[in-house]
Design brief:
Number of strands: 21
Oligomer: single chain
Structural class: alpha+beta
Shape: globular
Number of helices: 12
């Protein structure tokens, strides 16, 4: 069992205070967006035996278990993060596994450097993800009912939004959503910047359900993603609630602190709220134009006090233990690899004392018990 020393990524949208507050350290004044726990080559966790990548490469079956290696290969198939959004992230979607393999092979064949700004596929893997709120957490997830969005846009009183309102009343629903998103992302940049400015002013004036979009426009003035964001469900998670983001679901995180887990991939196609490359044709090929609610998840009780966030994929399984004072130790031994992360209180896992933001890697089959008073998230796989 290895205590993890983890890298904090300083992306511009990160909060300057949330991760330092969790860790109990002084802020640096710089944004601290994500703390990565896992074996991603971009920022692998460090252990007393070397990086977690090196530890796993030295003995994959011992560290990951025979079943996990057989199913996912000799690599940890998930990446666990603490995510702290101080400003909206880019509006984005992720490909499914088949699309990722095809897209990666195509870009490799065309000789596009993997670090090129216009490259869409950094690897051949999909990137389903789950975000669980530690604080109140705001996000956008999936398309809102088109008629409800038409009313929302119409309520702004902006003439240049009227064509989108009319399109959203068309049938079928999938075609209406596709046409509107295409029109938004293909519009003349100067005209769209003017539309966004008018819409942002109206959102600020009206407030209420328009307030999140006014804040988005404050961070991304003139960006067509502001109007695209209004096509999506706005959701406010309470601590312990979660969202699962499957392939093709447009989404963005707006503010708050959470635990995020995902398949080990960097594949992102952006819709807006970013200065980075937006490949409109490829994006439209990947997006699932289906309306529905955001699908807030709450943990389901399992034996021995475990609370599981159920998802339809096997690369990761996230659960938590909320341990009150005086609770007996919980047995956590599994035949699959685990990362255990404390987010509240103080707990003991084996010989390691964990306080908020501290984590350990538990190899497959390694005996592990957790005791103390606090909250522990458990990341593993289904193999």
């Amino acid at each position: 069992m290895d205590r993890l020393d983890n890298t904090v990524r300083p992306y511009a949208w990160g909060s300057t205070t949330a991760i330092p507050k969790l860790l109990g350290v002084e802020p640096t004044g710089e944004p601290q967006a994500e703390m990565w726990m896992g074996a991603h080559p971009g920022a692998p966790s460090r252990t007393g035996r070397g990086t977690l990548v090196e530890v796993i490469e030295a003995a994959p079956e011992r560290e990951l278990g025979v079943a996990a290696v057989a199913k996912f290969g000799p690599h940890l198939p998930f990446l666990l993060k603490i995510l702290a959004a101080g400003a909206p992230l880019s509006l984005q979607v992720h490909p499914n596994l088949e699309q990722a393999k095809e897209g990666y092979a195509d870009e490799e064949a065309r000789g596009i450097p993997v670090d090129a700004g216009h490259r869409n596929y950094k690897d051949a893997n999909h990137k389903p993800e789950l975000i669980c709120a530690l604080t109140e957490f705001d996000g956008l997830c999936g398309f809102r009912d088109p008629l409800r969005t038409a009313d929302l846009l119409d309520g702004l009183g902006v003439d240049s939004l009227k064509p989108y309102v009319d399109l959203l009343h068309a049938h079928p629903e999938e075609a209406a959503l596709r046409e509107v998103l295409t029109a938004i992302l293909s519009a003349d940049p100067d005209e769209m910047a003017h539309t966004v400015a008018e819409a942002a002013a109206a959102c600020s004036r009206i407030g209420g359900e328009y307030a999140p979009y006014a804040d988005i426009a404050h961070h991304y003035p003139g960006d067509p993603g502001v109007i695209a964001a209004m096509l999506l469900n706005h959701v406010r998670l309470q601590p312990g609630e979660a969202l699962f983001l499957g392939a093709g679901i447009p989404h963005a995180y707006l503010s708050g602190l959470g635990v995020e887990i995902m398949a080990n991939s960097d594949n992102v196609l952006r819709c807006g709220l970013t200065p980075k490359h937006v490949d409109v044709p490829e994006l439209l090929r990947i997006v699932r134009f289906e309306a529905g609610d955001a699908g807030v998840l709450r943990p389901e009780a399992a034996p021995d006090g475990e609370e599981v966030y159920e998802t339809p994929i096997d690369e990761f399984r996230l659960s938590r233990y909320v341990l009150p004072e005086g609770t007996t130790a919980h047995e956590l031994t599994r035949a699959t690899p685990q990362i255990l992360l404390c987010t509240a209180g103080a707990v003991r896992v084996g010989e390691h004392e964990l306080t908020p933001g501290r984590s350990v890697f538990v190899p497959a089959g390694e005996r592990a018990e957790v005791s103390g008073a606090g909250t522990v998230f458990r990341a593993t796989v289904v193999a």
